[in-house]
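Appendix B, record 7
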Amino acid sequence: MNVSFFSDLLTTISERGRGLIGLGRNGDGGPANVADLVRLCGDLMSRRGEASGVALARIILDRYGSLAQKDRFSFLRQVADRFGPDETAIAQAIEAYRTAPSRAAANALHAASEPKSQELIRRLNLAGGGTLSLVRMREDLLDLGHELRTQDPDACDAIDSLDADFTRLFSSWFNRGFLVLRRIDWTTPAHILEKIIRYEAVHEISDWDDLRRRIAPADRRCFAFFHPALVDEPLIFVEVALTTEIPSAIAPILTKEREPLPLRAATTATFYSISNCQRGLAGVSFGNFLIKQVVEDLCRELPNLKTFVTLSPAPGFAAWLEREMGADGSGALPAEDRERLRLAEAPGWPADEAAAEAARRPLLSAAAYYFLRARTPAGRPLDPVARFHLGNGARLERLNFLGDVSAKGLKQSKGLMVNYLYDLDTIEKHHEAYANQGVVTASSAVRRLLRSDLPAPTSAFE
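Structure tokens (predicted):
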């Protein structure tokens, strides 16, 4: 109700503001034009009145939304080029600080170095529904950046700078303090349930019956994080299976033919799908301990739950393994392991019992190296899912051979699935170790899979 009231208030201010700037309900009635839209952005930056600013921001966002993709790209490139930092002001501020260093001079330098595009984004956000419009705008910016990287790499600097502005502001607007956790069940409004189907990124939801099997039975749960500015748009949702043990494969969880587990028998909560819903928020951290919040909610409802784990994909493993197989002198794959791993390249190899058994040990050994030693240039684990869970304070608990034999599972991870364990007593400790030293906390079972004759890692974070 409060959000609706605030939205209605902004709409009223916007409508009255249109009159103040000489525009009616439908703007000036002209078709959307990139040059005019850029001019209106300059006008928005020069205004001091909030009512007229709210109205103008809404007009800009509405017109942007009506543009064809190529015109959106043109608009974003012009904004990136024309609303960058004021280099003259930066030079003057630097000189002033050098001449008389002070906090005031440092603040002036900080203000001078901020690109004008950052203030433009803030002002566009004044419009009713502005936050969601800007999230959608960043989706276009990400697409533009991808296109330029393949066609015109020299033009990427300004676009990357504009994207950094979006990321910086979104990181403030979407920090965990603003997020609200809600249970999703069969009584949730249909328009939100439809988005759960659409946004599922780990294990596709085929239809409404499939969705019902995931959220309606007594031994299934689904939770979603929302933001007050995106009332009906989930940011992240988590699907949970209540079980009696730590699962090693996804098929038994998703199968149609199963009997729901009585709640009194459940001892384990398995997070088997965690989906980021808004592509425009890619790379924006919602903070750590999101899963801990879900765990605490489950504990309040079901105190008999003792174990909290994930059953996670390893989306980068197959690509990494392919690169290592093709590299001369790979430190991760001894020669004898390479020969056996080639068995896992043949079509239908999981169904070949002999081939699967021969590939088991070298594949799990390679996976242990991938998680425990392979690093990004920044010194963090290569796997994005691993970075998420380790950052949330989990422990790398178990590697599951052929845990997902679907076409997608075999393509992205050679069928590998991973259990990350959330121990409420050690979550903060593991998070701090990972955040400050890059420590990958892993069980002894996972560490034993790593061959002892492999070269030691060179990363300072190990």
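Remarks on this record: Residues 282 and 351 are 37 Å apart (CA to CA). DSSP finds 20 helices and eight strands in the chain.
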